[in-house]
Each structure stands twice: as structure tokens, then as C-alpha cells.
Amino acid sequence: MAIKVTMPRLSDTMTEGTVATWLKKVGDKISEGDILAEIETDKATMEFESFNEGTLLHIGIAEGETAPVDSLLAIIGNEGEDISALLAGGAAPAAAAPAAVETKKEETAAPAAQPAAALPAGVIVVTMPRLSDTMTEGTVATWLKKVGDSVAEGDILAEIETDKATMEFESFNEGTLLYIGIQEGNTAPVDSLLAIIGPAGTDISGIADGFVAGSAPQAAAPAAEETKAAPAAVAAAPVAQEAPADGGRIIASPLAKKIASDKGIQLTQVKGSGENGRIVKSDIENFTPAAAAPQAAPAAKADAAAPAAKPYVPAGQIATEEIKNSQMRKIIAKRLSESLFTAPHYNLVIEVSMDEAMKSRATINTVPDTKVSFNDMVIKASALALKKHPKINSQWSADAITINYHVNIGVAVAVEDGLVVPVLPFTDGMSLSQIGASVRDLAGRAKSKKLLPSEMEGSTFTISNLGMFGITEFNSIINQPNSAILSVGAIVEKPVVKNGQIVVGNTMMLSLACDHRTIDGATGAQFLQTLKQYIENPVTMLA
């Protein structure tokens, strides 16, 4: 049955979008996860994936055109299906007749078509969204609505934890929240039944039962009790950091609280622009702390109270704490396990003299408004070395090895919940100062969970640096689909031999983990030799 695809709301402030590029044309086959188009929002140009499969039957917004959120973007359905009713503004069930004609396919089509055909007027099934390119499941961190609440378009329904961040999920529909399919703290695959919205009093028991039976098994009984249980859970979820003068609670999203904590902002000083005065991330980002000085005493009180939250454990007493795995931690575990157990790793280690690099960096940083780190120099040298040794810049598949002649270096950044890898597109064409500025920007936004999914895609090679922690040498696990990852250690002052004399020198260890399916030992060794030459003679990187 044909499905309307509308202009998505890709940011919390987006009211309209511009179709920058269509990646599919009418008549093309669409699979779930295919990129339909690139859409320009008020913040960035983002890839928009399809959550459905079928044939692209209609494009409603041409390239370069701008349209409001929820405008008809496209229609996906069965090849040759009549979509005249949808184009005329009719509802999706109007397209059910062609499905009934296909008697031979009735048995397989019935499970998918039945829930849609059974939807009463005005009822919308909301599924677990795919909020990042790598998301396969999500955890409901907090419900901001409870069963029976009125929902307006743009209201925040819930906060959903993905493999990369905790994100606010807005409603694209209006009505009454009739059913909650995934309770707070529970995890479910993308496209599982998240909620049902429709006119108040509508009987949706059959819809919930049918949908759940076909995807994510859950008992329908708890839904009837949610009207009593949900308010307490929702009320307790937004934790107030400070009690306001009137004794009320401060309601803020986890992301807003995290950013406020990082910036040292007291939530009592922030006026929320969200629903019911709720503080959202934009309120924190736009906050000016001019009036925050009088609150120094409460801030000290909060800081002083923080250590008390940890239980005191007497010596000799066994104590444990169980921390539930976040989506990011689950994805890290899954991907690194797959990488280590599927790609035959081997490591090559080389020692590099850093004397000239230290002199060059000191000279470069005398230029006003310029700040270059040793890591920036390693990134630049790696990009140039990859151009000379493109086999390192490759990826494996069962049928072929893909050699990438463009260089997109991913830089591993440690964040509170784990590790993310923002990407520097076309790194070989960037200057040292451009690399430095970009890395600082990406790392800063990674730690505050402001990176866009598109900024963590497309790496061809990865660099991980633990030198700032005093680690002199280590081996990393390959960030697939890359074929190699470079581990960068600390710079160490030690005795070295130069021209037959023992002198004080500065050296650094580099370890290259390679996938033996794509990179032979000699190839990896040649790459490291070239990399060493660039780092030990920084002037060659500026030629």
C-alpha cells in the first residue's frame, strides 16, 4: 500500500526544508535505509533515509524547492499502484483496493496491511524512529507525555537514547496520546511500536495487539494501567538540580542538563522556552550568565552536596554497582567485537624523532590566531602519506577491495558515554591551521553531544591519540570499514644516539593496526616509513 513521506523535522527549530539533491528518481526501487534525498535545514544539510521499502512513485518537492515541515515530499508504494487518491489529499487506506486484488500475495501482504487498514479515522501509529545512520535500536530515556495527554504538532513526546546521543523526539501529529508501547528505560528496535496518537476515547486495542504481535512482543494489559502509573514516572524523570524560590520543580531535558553542567550554568537562572516552561538545549546555548552571580551560594551548596551522593563503603566490605549499558556502549561493544573477530589484525610499530616537529610547532604557533597541536601534525602527515599509499586507505568486502583516493580521516574522541569518531572530509587538502580548528570544533561538539550524524560518517582512516594521558604505546582496534587505524603515543624525552653520540632527544611511538585481508605487512611498513619522514621533516608537509 502506498505511503506518504512528508518533509521531516530534522532539527528542533526547523519549520521548513529545502531539497538540495534527490538521490532517487521516480521508478527507482527503495529499500529501508536508502538515502532518498539531501535536505537543507536551518542548521545543516542532512541525508534523509527511507523508513519504508517499495518503488518511488511520486516526488512532491523538486530539487531546490523549499516547503514547510509535513509537506508531501514523496510517495512510496508498489510499482504501478494508483496514487491518485493520495495526490488528491486522500488517506492512505484509499490505496488498499489494489492490494486486495493480489490474491496470490494476500497471505504475505496481510500482516503489513492489516494494521493500516484497521486504523480508525485520525489515528496515527508512531514507531521508534531512526535518529542516526547507525541506529538499530533505541532506549526511551524519558516520556514527556502520558496516556491521555493532548499532543500538539511539535510537542516533545519523549527523550530517546541512541548509540550516539540522547535526543528529543517531537511529534509530527496532533491528538491524544492513546497508548505507550515502550516504557521508560526499555530498549526496542527501530520501527517498533512507540506510541499511538488519535482522537480521545478511540478504541485502539486491536491496533496495538496486531502491531505488537507482528514486531516487538509486549503485553497489551499494562497499557490499561498506564494512566495511573505513567504520571509518577514522568514526573520523576526530569530531575531538578535546584529548587526554585516558589518550591516548584525545574524541568529540563537530559541534554540541556548535560550542557548546563559542562558550562557551569545553574538551571535556576535559565528560563525554559519548551512546553510547560521546560528547559531545552537551545535555552542553555543562548543563555547569558549576566544575572548568575547572585546564585554563587546555591552553586557552592550543590557542589558540596555532590560527593554525598556516593555511598560510603567501609574497608573490608564488598560493594558493587550495576550501571545499565547505554546505547552507545552497546554499539561500541558490538562493532569492536565484530571488527576484532572478523578482521585479522596485526600491528606495526615505529619510533619517530619529534625534535624538528617540536621546533616547527613552536614557530607556527607564534603566528597570531594560530594554534597547532602535535596531533594536528600527525593528522596532516597521515593524510599526505595515505595519498602515496592508497592501499592503506581501503576497505574490504567479500567481492572486492575498494581503494579510496579521497582521504577522510576520523579522529577518535573520548566522551562521557564512550567514544565517537568525527570525520575531517578531504583532510589532504586542509592546512595545519584548518585541521587544528576543525578538530577543536568537532571534539568540543562531540563532548557536548552536538555532532550531526553526517559529521561521523565516511571515514577512510582513523587516528587515536592517548599521548595526552602519558600512554607511550598502545594498539587500537580497527574502526571498520576502514582497513587501518593509527595509535599515537606520548612524546618522551630520553637518551638517543645521533651521529654516533648519545644525546637527549624527544621521540614518539606510532602503532599501525592493519587488516591483513587488505594490507600486507610490507605495504603497512612502507606507509609508516613515509609517515615518519613527514613528521621528522615538517617542512615537507608545507610544500
From TrEMBL:
Q: In this protein, which residues make up the domain named Peripheral subunit-binding (PSBD)?
A: 251-288
Q: Transferase as a keyword?
A: yes
**Entry-linked CDD domains:** lipoyl_domain
- Choose any GO biological process term that the UniProt entry carries and state it: pyruvate decarboxylation to acetyl-CoA
TM stretches of this protein: none
Is Acyltransferase found in the keyword set?
yes
Name the needed cofactors.
Answer: (R)-lipoate
Please name the Pfam families in this protein's record: 2-oxoacid_dh (PF00198), Biotin_lipoyl (PF00364), E3_binding (PF02817)
- Cellular component annotations (GO), alphabetically ordered: pyruvate dehydrogenase complex
Source domain of life: Bacteria
EC number(s) stated in the UniProt entry for this protein: 2.3.1.-
Which terms does the record give in the GO molecular function aspect?
acyltransferase activity
Mind listing the UniProt keywords for this protein, alphabetically?
Acyltransferase, Lipoyl, Pyruvate, Transferase
Residues covered by the Lipoyl-binding domain: 2-77, 123-198
The family note in this entry says: Belongs to the 2-oxoacid dehydrogenase family.
> What is the role of the protein in this entry?
The pyruvate dehydrogenase complex catalyzes the overall conversion of pyruvate to acetyl-CoA and CO(2). It contains multiple copies of three enzymatic components: pyruvate dehydrogenase (E1), dihydrolipoamide acetyltransferase (E2) and lipoamide dehydrogenase (E3).
What's this protein's name? Answer: Dihydrolipoamide acetyltransferase component of pyruvate dehydrogenase complex
- Native organism: Flavobacterium glycines
Query: Corresponding gene?
Result: pdhC
